[in-house]
Amino acid sequence: MRRADGPVARRTVAGVPLDGPVARWAVAGVLAAAAAYGLAAGLPAYWVFLAMSAVISGVLLQSLGVVAGQAGMVSLCQMAFAAIGAWTTAQLNVWGVPGGLYVWLPLAGLAAVPFGLLIGLPALRLRGVHLAIVTLGFAATVDVVMAANSFPGVSQGVVVGRPAGLTSDRQYFLLCCGVFALVAVALALVRRTRLGASWRALKESERATAAAGTSVPAAKLSAFAVSAFIAGVSGALLAGQLAMVVSRNFDPGQSLVAYAVAVMAGAHHAEGALVGGALGVLVSELLRRLGVPQQWANVVFAVGAVQAMTQGSGMSDGLRAALRARRARRSDARHADTGPGVSAAAGPEAPALAADGRRAALRIERVSVRYGQVVAVDDVGLTVLAGEVHGLVGPNGAGKSSLVDAISGFVPTGGGLVEVGGVAVAGARGGAAVHRRARAGLRRTFQQDRVPVGLSVREYLRFAARRALSDAELEEGLAGLVTAAPGDPIAALDVGARRLLEVAGTLLARPAIAVLDEPAAGLGHAESERLGAWLRRVPARYGAAVLLIEHDLDLVRAACTGVTVLDFGRVVAQGPPAEVFAEPRVLRAYLGEEPAA
Amino acid sequence: MFQGLVSGLAAGGTFAALGLLLTAMYRLTATVNLAVAATGVAGVYVMAALAGTGWPYWAAALAGVAAGALVSAGCGLVMTRWFAESGPQTRTAVSIAQLIGIIALAYIAFGDEPRVLPNPAAGRVATLAGVVVTQGAVVLLALAVVIGAGTSLLLTRTPLGLRLRAMAERPVTTELLGIGTRALTVTVWALAGALSSLVLLVVAPVRSSDILSLSMLIVPACAAALLGGLRRLAGALAGGLALGLLEGVLAGSAVVQQYRDVVPFAAILLILVWSRRREVWDASR
Q1: Residue A147 half-sphere exposure toward CB, CA atoms < 13 A
Q2: Which chain B residue is nearest to residue A263, measuring alpha carbons?
Q3: Strand ranges inside chain B, DSSP E
Q4: For residues A207-225, average pLDDT
Q5: Which of A172-186, B88-102, B174-188 has the highest mean pLDDT?
Q6: What ipTM was predicted for this assembly?
Q7: A74, A207, A299: residue with CB nearest B282
Q8: Which of A76, A79, A124, A130 should be substituted to probe chain B, the one whose Cβ sees the most B Cβ atoms within 10 Å?
Q9: Which residue is closest to A297 within chain B, CA to CA?
Q10: Residue A337 or residue B212, greater confidence
Q11: 3-state helix, strand and coil shares in percent for chain A, rounded to the nearest 5
C-alpha cells in the first residue's frame, strides 16, 4: 500500500514496450469512453434509462466483487448498504447540502462505510455459512428499519434533485458510466497493491495471509469498508436516477439476487460486473417484451449461479482465461528465440552476515504446546545461528508442526521464549500476533498448499516479499527452484510448483529466519536433490537462516549444517547431521527398536 | 407481559420447528438449507390454488405437502448431483440460488396479490391471561417437538441415521465403504420439504400470505438453529421458543412493535460471535 505506486508505476511505464498493458488499458479506456458517449447520444430515451440501470447495478456488483469475489466472504446485504447510501442522499437533498450529487455521492458512500465495518467485525470470527446468515439477517433488519421510517422527503413529496449538467437522462447516464469507470480503475489500481493481493490471499487461506506478514483483520475490514462504500455510491446513483426511492427498491431478496448474479458473471472483474448489470436489465426487458412474468429473470440468475458454481468460476474468468490463452499463443510465436534462461543481471547482494557471524537468527527456550491433556511439545529449546540451515526432524506426531505453529504465533508458547534476530516476539507474557512476527523477520511456509490461486506468480511474490521487486529480482528468486514465468497465473501451476513458489516468496522477503515446513513433500528424488543444493546456498544468497522441517533425511543431510531431532515432543538429539543420525536413540525413534542400519 | 408470552407461542413453535429442520438437515445432509422455508411456501401456495378450484381442504393440503416434498427433493437432487464434494460455503451459496429460484417461480405461478388462506387450526384451545391460545399454536408446538424427537431418534437409534451421518460428514469415505446413500439423502430433503409445508400450512394463515416474507422466516429459524450450534436439537428447540416468546413480548409494546423483526438478527449476531469467539483462523492447522 504505502510505497506501491512509486516504484511499481515507474517501472511499468519505463520497462514495458508500447504494445504492453499500459497501452492496452489506454486503448480500452478510450474505446469505453467513446462507447458510453455513443450510447448516450444514439440510444432512444427509453433505452438510455435502461442502460443507466444496467451501469448502476454494475457498480453494485463491483462492490460484491470486492468482498465476495476477491476476498471470498459471503455478503448477502449489499442492497442494505445501497439503501443506506440512498437514504443518505435523500437526507442530504432534504437538507439542501450544497454541491448536489457530485458531493452527495461520496458522502453516501462514506455513510455506508461504518455499517460495512460493523458487518466486517463479526466476519473476523464468522465464515461461510455463519457469515451468510449474519449478512442475510442484517439485510432483513435494514429492510425492516427502512420500511418503518420512510425515506427522507418521500412523505413531503420532495424528489432528489439533479444538479445542472445532469438534468437530462443522457447526461446522468454519462455520470453513471463515469462513476463505474472510476470504481473500476480504482479497483484495478488497488489490485496491484499489497492490499488488493491480501484480499485475494484471504480467499485462499487466512493462516497463509497472516504468515506473509499481512494483518487478517485489516484485510477483512478493508474489504468490507471498500465494498460498503461502493455499494453506498450505487444506492446514491439509484436515488438520483429514480428521484424518489422507497424501501421496496432495496428489499433483501434483491441482495440475494445480486449475489447470484455476481457469482454467475464473475463480478471481481469490471467487465464481469458490467455484463452482470447488463444481463439483469436485458433479461427483464426481454421478458417484458415477450409478455413473460418478470420473475423468470431471477430463475435464470439462480440457474446461472448454480451453473457457475459447478464450474467454480464466473463468466469473466472464462473470458480472461480465453484471452490469456490467445495472447500466450501469439507471444510464443513472437518470442520463440528469447528462451527462458536465468536473468543475466547480477544477483542481489547478500547482506553481509553480522560481524561476529554467529548471532542467533532464531532462539527458542522452554516452548511447550498443550492441546487439552495432550502435551504435543514439551519444554523445547533450539537455536538457529545466522547463516545456518538447521534441520528439524522426527517421526510423525513428534510435535514438529506444533512447534512451528508455536514459533510462528498460531498457538501459545506456554510461556516459552521466541527471539528473532535477538528481538523477543514471544515470552512469558504472551506473544506478538502472527503478522507482526512475520514482519519482524520470522517467515514460515505450510505443509498444505496455501498459495492463493487468484494471484499471478509476480503478484504473489510481491505480496509475500512485502516490497516492490524488479523483474530481475523475480527471475533470480525463481531461478533453480520453480520453472514458472512471473506472468503465469498460480492456478496454472501444479501443487509441487506452488509449494516451491511459497518457499521462493518466503525467502524474497529476506527474513532473519525462514521456517520451511516439509517443502520437499510430493517432489521426486531428482527435484529433491536439487532443492537440497539450493537450500544450502540460501544463507549466502538471502542472508536468511533456515529451519527446515523434513522427513526426507537425504535432503536434510544435503542441506543442513545442524539437526535437532524431536520425539514425543522432546528434543532427543542435537548436532551435526552425521553424528546425530548415527545415535542409537535417533535410530530407535525412526526405525523402531532395531538400530540396524 | 404474560399476554405477550402467550401470544408468542405460535411464533415460537414456528421458529423452533423450522430451526429443527435446519439442524436436522445440516446433520443429515451437511447443508444449511436456506430454502427450507421457501419449499414450505411452495406447498402452501399449491394448497391455496387447489382449494381455490374447489378441492376439499384436506386433499388440497395433502397435495401441498406433496408439492413441498417434491420441490425440496429437486433441490436435494441438484445438491447431491453436482455439489456432493463441495465445501459448506459453496453448498450454502447453492441453496441461496435455490431460494431465489423458488421465490421467483412461486411469484410466477401464483402471482403477488395477497390472498386469504384457509386456516385449518383457527379454533381456540384455551384462554390464558385473556389471550386466546389457538389450535394453531398447539399444533406448531407439537410439530416442533415431533420433528425434534423424530430426528433425535433417527440420528441416534437407527442404522439409517448412522449411515446418513456418515454420508454427511465424509461422503467419499462412505461411498468407498460401499454405502450408496444418494437416494436416501434426497429422501431426507423430500421429508424436510414435506414437514416445512406442514409448518407453513398452519402458520401462514395467521402470519402473512406474502411469498417473500414467509420465505424470510428462514432468518429467525437460523437464529434458533444457531442457538444449538447447528448440531444440538434441544438447543434449536429452546432457541426457537425463546425467540418466539421474545417476539410476542415485544409485540405488546407499540414503540418497539414495528422493529420486532430486528430481534432475530441481534440474537443471531450475539450467539454467533459469542460461540465462535475462539475461531480466529479459518483452518484448524
Answers
A1: 17
A2: B93
A3: 124-128, 131-134
A4: 94
A5: A172-186
A6: 0.85
A7: A207
A8: A130
A9: B104
A10: B212
A11: 60, 10, 30
> What's residue A357's pLDDT?
52
Smallest Cβ distance to A298: which of B82, B101, B222? B101
Residue of A nearest to B284 (CA): A207
Residue A50, number of CB atoms within 10 A of its CB: 17
Taking only Cα atoms into account, the Rg of chain B, rounded to an integer number of angstroms, comes to 19
Mean pLDDT of all residues in B39-61: 93
Contact B100 A410 (CB under 8 A): no
Instruction: Count CB atoms within 10 A of the CB of residue A493.
Output: 20
Closest by Cα among A165, A182, A177, A161 to A241? A161
Say if CB B199 and CB A113 are below 8 A apart. Answer: no
CB contact under 8 A, A253 and B212: yes
Q: Residue A148: list chain B partners with CB under 8 A.
A: 258-259
- The C-alpha atoms of residue A76 and residue A74 are separated, in whole angstroms, by 7
Q: How far is CA A448 from CA A457, A522, A551, A555, in A?
A: 18, 11, 15, 19
Instruction: Give the chain A residue nearest B219 (alpha carbons).
Output: A137
pLDDT-derived band at A594, boundaries 50, 70, 90: low
Find the mean pLDDT for residues A48-68. Answer: 95
Write the burial class of residue A94 (CB in 10 Å: 0-12 exposed, 13-18 middle, 19+ buried).
middle
Contact across the interface for B259 and A125, Cβ inside 8 Å: no
Write down the residue that cell numbers 466486517 correspond to.
A120
Mean pLDDT over residues A58-79, rounded?
A: 94
| Mutation target among B77, B265, B277 for the A interface, most CBs of A within 10 A | B265
**Non-local CB neighbours of A179 within 8 Å, separated by 6+ positions:** A59, A105, A233, A237
Are A406 and A462 in contact by the 8 Å Cβ rule? The answer is no
Which pLDDT belongs to residue A595? 46
- Grid cell, residue B23, equals 439442524
Please write the tens of the pLDDT for every residue from A499-551: 899 999 999 999 999 999 999 887 888 888 889 999 999 999 999 999 999 88
* Whether the model pTM is above 0.90: no
Q: Among A125, A133, A141, A263, which would you mutate to test the B interface (most chain B Cβ atoms within 10 Å of its Cβ)?
A: A133
Residue whose C-alpha is closest to residue B220's, from B50, B69, B11: B11
Strand partners, A374: A371
d(CA B56, CA A424): 79
Q: How many CB pairs under 8 A join A and B?
A: 153
Q: What is chain A's length?
A: 597
More confident residue, A115 or A248: A115
Q: Which of B208, B260, B281, B284 to mutate to test the interface with A (most CBs of A within 10 A)?
A: B281
CA distance B60 to chain A (A): 25
Side chain identity, residue A411? V
Q: How many other C-beta atoms can be found within 10 angstroms of the C-beta atom of residue B277?
A: 10
A301 contacts in chain B (CB < 8 Å): 97, 100
Distance CA B32, CA B21 (A): 10
Contact A251 B212 (CB under 8 A): yes
pLDDT of residue A182 exceeding 80, the answer is: yes
Pairing of strands A360-371, A417-420: antiparallel
DSSP category for residue A489: B
CB nearest to A207's CB, from B99, B272, B281: B281
Task: Give the span between the Cα atoms of B82 and A305, in whole angstroms.
Answer: 13
**Cα–Cα distance between A62 and A277 in angstroms, integer?**
10
Backbone φ and ψ of A96, nearest 5°: 70, 35
